[in-house]
Automatic annotation (TrEMBL):
InterPro entries: cNMP-bd_dom_sf, RmlC-like_jellyroll. SUPFAM superfamilies: cAMP-binding domain-like (SSF51206). It comes from Shivajiella indica. This is Crp/Fnr family transcriptional regulator. It comes from the Bacteria.
Length: 190
């Protein structure tokens, strides 16, 4: 598992051998069951996750509506980043949609290493900037794209997602009723 973490980390921002030796030691195996909440609303996010198996989502929920914001899956990082970085209670929940396995690192350990190693601080900065870029791109999609365009963009970004994620969550992510999602799939040539 840590070999894959090294490849992904180096694709974001290469670490020296010394930095890697310190960095990989803080990542601990963790697993959870289907529908288990990894980070509930109102609790501060203390961990950054590296997904090795399974599928998860970050969502917002109030009494009337639920909005799926992000999907995470193998070989990506996950967690409620704003809560993790700002050390504030989360407004969002992070839930496993399938049984899942991770490597996870605690905030305090990452913070210590980012102060000790410039390469790790750079890796964190580039990772956060990439996450922000993704959020801004998603905001443009939500405000300017039709349902069909949002769906096509999602499939271009993550072509495997249609087989991985239950359609009710994909419909929610796109912002349409699940019954209309079937019509959308049938109307688009994939």
């Amino acid at each position: 598992m840590k070999e894959i973490l090294k490849v992904i980390t180096n694709n974001i921002s290469p670490l020296s051998e010394e930095e890697w030796q310190d960095f990989h030691q803080i990542w601990k195996p963790f697993s959870c069951k289907r529908k288990e909440c990894l980070s509930p609303v109102g609790k501060r996010e203390d961990n950054l996750y590296f997904i090795t198996e399974g599928l998860q989502r970050i969502f917002y929920e109030d009494q009337e509506k639920e909005a799926t914001l992000i999907f995470t899956y193998p070989h990506s990082f996950g967690g409620i980043l704003d809560s993790f970085i700002l050390r504030t209670p989360s407004k969002f929940a992070y839930e496993a949609l399938t049984p899942s396995k991770f490597l996870r690192a605690h905030h305090d350990d990452l913070e210590k290493l980012s102060l000790k190693h410039a390469g790790i601080a750079k890796f964190i900065k580039i990772g956060i900037t990439g996450a922000l870029a993704g959020v801004l791109e998603r905001q443009v999609e939500l405000q300017t794209f039709s349902s069909e365009e949002k769906f096509r963009k999602l499939l271009n970004r993550s072509p495997h997602i249609l087989q991985m994620i239950p359609h009710k969550y994909l419909a929610n992510y796109i912002g349409i009723d699940p019954t209309n999602f079937s019509k959308l799939i049938n109307s688009i040539k994939l």
